[in-house]
Amino acid sequence: MKKHKEKMQCIQATKMIPGFIDGELSYKELEQFMEHIEECESCREELSIQFLVEVGLNSLEAGNTFDLQEELNEALEEARKRVKIYRVFRQGIFILECIGIAAVLLAALLLILNFAG
Ligand SMILES: [Zn+2]
């Protein structure tokens, strides 16, 4: 419950739906959006309605068959993958930073030992 304040609110999530459908969310936004969508039933419903209107109608106009649930699942799966890559990437940067700091400390230590000796 204490993490509640950090969680994205439905209003914010709903505003991001068109961006999600158009693939215009940044990785950070996408991560927050997906976290909310995974656990918020009403926003998932809102997403599927807007997805149907945006993607479904275009698809039908173009004469293609359209399976809402499958198309939506695919879009969500794709988003999950992107969030995962983003997290790995961010973790990689964090590890590199740690290695960088460790290298600087080691160099400083060697320098001090050198002067001390
Ligand atoms: Zn919500």
Short summary:
By secondary structure, the protein is an all-alpha fold. The chain has helices at residues 10-22, 27-39, 41-61, 68-116. Residues 10, 13, 36, 40, 42-43 line the site of zinc ion.
What's the SSE pattern? HHHH
N-to-C span: 55 Å
Q: Please state the average pLDDT score.
A: 90
Classify the beta-strand content into a percent band: under 5%
Number of helices: 4
* Class computed from helices, strands and strand pairing: mainly alpha
Radius of gyration: 22 Å
Number of domains: 1
Ions, cofactors and other ligands present here are: zinc ion
Shape: elongated
**Main sheet attributes: strand count, strand direction, barrel closure:** none
Question: Helicity range of the residues?
Answer: over 70%
Low-confidence stretches: none
Please give the number of β-strands: 0
Topology:
Layout: H1 10-22, H2 27-39, H3 41-61, H4 68-116
Helix pairs in contact: 1-2, 1-3, 2-4
Bound molecules: zinc ion.
